[in-house]
Design brief:
Number of domains: 2
Low-confidence stretches: none
Number of strands: 5
CATH superfamily of the largest domain: HUPs
Bound molecules: adenosine-5'-tetraphosphate
Order of helices and strands: EHEHHEHHHHEHEHHHHH
Shape: globular
CATH architecture of the largest domain: 3-Layer(aba) Sandwich
Distance between the termini: 29 Å
Strand order of the largest sheet: 1-2-3
Helix content: 40-55%
């Protein structure tokens, strides 16, 4: 049986990358009639310092982003991670299954910890073991993510395999990362070789889901490009990361292929293409940001949805966690 799980950190500044790489695709799964579980991973967020008030607001804002993007709480389970203690409990067991060397190889650890690893939190180092628990505490089979999370889902598979091997069971499934579409890696608007990221110090590098029409248009107008015009075929984007990024964003927002976009805009200059892209981005994002703002006026409604989602998630996780404790040999 297929079961989809994915998560997003409530660490602020939801970006167009999160929307195209994650939120929008989560909604597509829900509409396929498959069981879908989506989590706001607040326990991952605190692996780097979060102001408590800001964390609360960001969690509700992310929930609003999910719902405004089309997530239907009747069809999908939506909740925040700390409501289901099974994540932390299974995370501990996986801390004892995973090896230090596996964690050290994670590119996100290397990027986020920086040079001074002695000063990074222990939680940041162990993050992938908790992420494995997020997925496996539901026996999820499919994990839709952006390209940047592929390595972590592969590590989840390694943890499942090692657990099954060490305890001589066939208990945890090996989940598949699902990375598809034109925008699995949306890049910074200032540097086409860097991923668009919530935590980039430059606000001009990203489109935030809460940006208004003027801000979106201005950021796209100022986006870095090269002096050439748009090619009529995808090969013409080779070695042109900024051009490729803008075309990919257009294709993903318009829900057409890159070839289709280039058939229409090939030969145009960026001065002509950028306003087209800005109009499209505003048309797609502004109904979402308007709805997010409306939902944020009713935080108690958001909290009720998350509590309800937490109850449903716990009902799935608890028997799996109990079975895990039995396998490991915990007396209960
Ligand atoms: N630029 C991106 N393009 C496509 N997908 C992306 N995702 C993130 N950035 C892009 C996908 O969004 C989901 C949630 O990511 P996350 O918030 O859990 O963590 P992250 O990958 O670390 O995202 P950020 O925006 O880069 O946050 P910071 O700056 O805090 O590290 C994932 O499915 C991710 O692939």
């Amino acid at each position: 049986k297929q079961r989809v799980f994915s998560g997003i950190q409530p660490s602020g500044n939801l970006t167009l990358g999160n929307y195209l790489g994650a939120l929008k695709r989560f909604v597509d799964w829900q509409d396929n009639g498959i069981e879908t579980i989506y989590c706001m991973v607040d326990m991952h967020a605190i692996t780097v310092w979060q102001d408590p008030e800001a964390l609360r607001r960001q969690t509700r804002e992310l929930a609003a982003g999910f719902i405004a993007s089309g997530l239907d709480p009747q069809k999908s389970i939506l909740f925040n991670q700390s409501q289901v203690s099974g994540h932390a409990e299974l995370g501990w067991i996986f801390n004892c299954v995973a090896r230090m060397g596996w964690m050290q190889r994670m590119t996100q650890w290397k990027d986020k910890a920086g040079k001074n690893t002695q000063n990074a939190s222990l939680g940041l180092f162990a993050y992938p073991a908790l992420m494995a628990a997020d997925i496996l505490v539901y026996h999820a089979t499919h994990v839709p993510v952006g390209e940047d999370q592929k390595q972590h889902v592969e590590l989840t598979r390694d943890i499942a395999i090692k657990f099954n091997h060490d305890y001589k069971v066939d208990f945890f499934p090996t989940p598949e990362p699902v990375i598809e579409g034109a925008a699995t890696r949306v890049m910074s608007l200032r540097d086409g070789t860097k991923k668009m990221s919530k935590s980039d110090p430059s606000d001009a590098s990203r489109i935030n889901m809460t940006d208004d029409a003027d801000a979106i248009a201005q950021k796209i107008r100022k986006a870095k490009t090269d002096p050439d015009g748009l090619p009529s075929e995808a090969e013409g984007l080779e070695g042109r990361p900024e051009a490729r990024n803008l075309v990919n964003i257009y294709a993903a927002l318009a829900e057409v292929s890159v070839d289709d976009v280039l058939r229409d805009v090939g030969g145009k200059q960026f001065s002509e293409f950028k306003p087209m892209l800005a109009d499209l981005a505003v048309a797609k994002l502004s109904p979402i940001s308007t709805e997010m703002a409306r939902l944020m006026q009713a935080p108690e409604e958001i909290d009720a949805i998350l509590r309800n989602g937490g109850d449903k998630a716990r009902a799935i996780a608890e028997p799996i966690l109990k079975k895990t404790y039995d396998i490991v040999g915990m007396v209960r």
